[in-house]
Amino acid sequence: MPSNFLEQLWAALGGWWREQAHARGALGAGSLLLRELWGFVRQSTPAERRQRYGDMDYDWEQRVNTTSGAVSWRARFLGIFHSPYQPTEPVLFREMMGALPIDFREFTFIDIGSGKGRTLLMASEYPFQKIVGVELIAELHRAAEENVARYRHSQEGARIETRCMDAREFAFPEAPLVVYLFNPLPEAGLRLVMRNLAESWKKAPRPVWIVYHNPVLEGVLMQSSLRLLKVVSKPEYSVYRMISGQDTLSRR
């Protein structure tokens, strides 16, 4: 994986351009790139930067640094071509976990696009067997490692593992899973992750739940080879359970 900013930028821009040019054509991709760059400039004003510190309550309570306000311009710029960093609200996360009718002790929690690790820390409030975060942007990964180290003053932090890697290359563990998504990837990347999850399930069928926060690319999941039963559908999130061929495929 590219180690310095320029290498990461060229790799991210190249992948983004290929995907967008394929979907929109070169003119459409160029137009979208200009809009994204202009949006980045607007969000870099002092007023916008102050607004991003509005998610600090959790950090003050836990003595960690997961706010989007303290993300450098480099990481934010890379986020244009991957996914902008935005931490999950604690109240909503607990609601999503409450929607899972499972014994947490039997499951591994996977956060695809774990950013600075807030979701990993919140997941440690539940007795998951293991908690794994996958993050591509090195700066965000380092912040997550620091946050987990601080959190390890309590017993929960010991079950958290952070990996700095491309989520498209992540091998899902052969254990019962809760997979958490908060729009971590562009459409093409999410398709690859879902394909990998489907192949992993075929090799080792086991209980798998997907919690999708702000499911703007829900169509990618439903068009994949995954057999998914939608258990919860709300504007803020959806919850799915992977089912076998013997189960009845119905959604509500």
Average pLDDT over all residues: 85
- CATH fourth-tier homologous superfamily of the largest domain: Vaccinia Virus protein VP39
| CATH class type of the largest domain | Alpha Beta
CATH topology of the largest domain: Rossmann fold
Q: What share of the residues lie within helices?
A: 40-55%
| Structural class computed from helices and strand pairing | alpha/beta
* N-to-C span: 41 Å
How many domains make up the coordinates? 2
Lateral arrangement of strands in the main beta sheet: 3-2-1-4-5-7-6
The largest pleated sheet is described as: 7 strands, mixed
The CATH architecture of the largest domain is 3-Layer(aba) Sandwich
Unreliable runs: none
Number of continuous helical runs: 9
Give helix and strand order, one letter per element, not per position.
HHHHHEHEHEEHEHEE
C-alpha geometry? globular
Care to count the β-strands? 7
> How large is the share of residues in beta strands?
15-25%
Overview features:
15% strand; 9 helices; globular; alpha/beta; 2 domains; seven-stranded mixed beta sheet; 252 residues; Rossmann fold
